[in-house]
Amino acid sequence: MMNNNLPSITEMIEALALISEDKNLLTRRYLTSQHKKVNELVAEWMSVAGMKAWQDPIGNIVGRYEGHENGLPALMLGSHLDTVVNAGKYDGMLGVVTAIHCVASLERQGKRLPFAVEVIGFADEEGTRFKSTYLGSKAVAGTFDLDTLDRLDSDEISMKEALDKFGLNTENIPNAARKKSEISAYLELHIEQGPVLEENNLAAGIVTEIAGATRLTIEIIGKAGHAGTVPLHLRQDALVTASECIVKLEKIAKASANTVVTVGEISIKPGASNVIPGHAKFTVDLRSSENSIRKKVENELQQALQEICTNRKAKLITTKTHSAESTKCSNNVIKQLENAFVKSGYPTYFLPSGAGHDTAAMSDLTETGMIFLRCRDGISHNPAESVKMEDVEAGFQIMLKFIENFQPL
Ligand SMILES: [Zn+2]
User: Fold this and answer.
1) Ligand 1 mean position, distance from CA 83 (Å)
2) Is residue 181 part of a domain?
3) What CA–CA distance (Å, rounded) separates 46 from 48?
4) In CATH, what number is assigned to the domain containing residue 100?
5) Each residue's pLDDT tens digit, 103-142
6) Ligand 1 centre from 80 Cα, in Å?
7) What is the domain range of residue 226?
């Protein structure tokens, strides 16, 4: 998979990993000088691979490889180039550089297809800077919310100011949106970020849907008191109540198919070893590939928590902080991916994605599909993120077969 002057996938990954806001770890947020540098580098690789490259009005980098004639609708391939704080080097980046290598292979073979191929590196998927995800892909899909421009980063810089400083004009953002007639499908290759493929001893899998998520903040108000003087049966201990709630949450989620629940943050007040906790606050992250199941579980959770709090004479306050519907990948793309797996000699395996991806936003614009690659121990959003080179090769072969055999609907 080498073109003259085109670095290998591994070399590209290593080069991108060096472009960081922090010398000791990988952090690359939206609209920073590192974002600019990465776009320049990726644009250069796109050109070497035979594409015409440009930066769109939201800061995505796009490359286009024309088909049999100029201006045909495109099969779009890509992922994101931004990172979380202290990231791994494969999340997002691997999908972009693999796609560039696929186009380079077409160019090397002198192959033009009955459609154009575009590669896109999305500018912001993680939402690290402005706490709003999918900024790049939403702009392309035409669903970018202009109110987001007023959001502030941790230094009180608004997204609008940051765009100005980066050299982008906010008035042009609507022009980042692509027409449905221009894009036939979007395919994203991404590391799984979970342990399922590894568990099944598989290099790659086909994503069926991207899970929907609900996030809640739960507050339990009991009564603080002296740890020595208040008998157990007279207490309204907020932490013991919260503990019972958390165990119950797990029980309810376990009883529902394709559902996971996580309590990732908890705090108590007053927080002293000799004081009964009067106040407990925790988050609930609930995900399911089926919207109806997620909503049913959410209702069950609320009822169960209320019951526990009533029994323990504590007050319950529930606030919903986030809600996103699950997104199905397109059957047409899934079928063509299945074909590409078989033709390149890899067993097909279907799995849902528990994490969000640009694919979810892109499904408002076009037909979508995803290839997941195995990653070591399922670790992601961490420097320990790791993939096997033979799996990267598998991803490349599968993606190339998919492109070569792609049939627009
Ligand atoms: Zn990602």
Assistant:
1) 8
2) yes
3) 5
4) 3.40.630.10
5) 999 999 999 999 999 999 999 999 999 988 899 999 999 9
6) 6
7) 212-324
Verify that 152 and 293 share a domain, yes or no. Answer: no
Helix (H/G/I), strand (E/B), else coil: 57: coil
- Please indicate, yes or no, if residue 138 is contained in any of the structural domains: yes
Dihedral class, residue 36 (left if φ above 0, else alpha if ψ from -120 to 50, else beta): alpha
Residue 2: inside a domain, yes or no? no
Same domain, 203 and 261: no
Question: Which of 125-134, 266-275, 309-318, 383-392 has the weakest average pLDDT?
Answer: 125-134
Can you state the angle between helices 389-404 and 9-17, rounded to 10 degrees?
A: 110
Q: CA neighbours within 13 Å on the CB side: how many for 76?
A: 28
Q: Tokens 């157990």 sit at which residue?
A: 232
Q: How many helices (H) and strands (E) does the chain have?
A: 11, 16
Give the Å distance between the CA of 356 and the centre of ligand 1.
8
**Distance of CA 136 from the midpoint of ligand 1 (Å):** 13
Q: For residue 124, how far is its CA from the centre of ligand 1 (angstroms)?
A: 10
Q: What separation in Å is there between the alpha carbon of 173 and the centre of ligand 1? A: 23
Three-class DSSP category at 58: coil
Query: SS3 for 286?
Result: strand
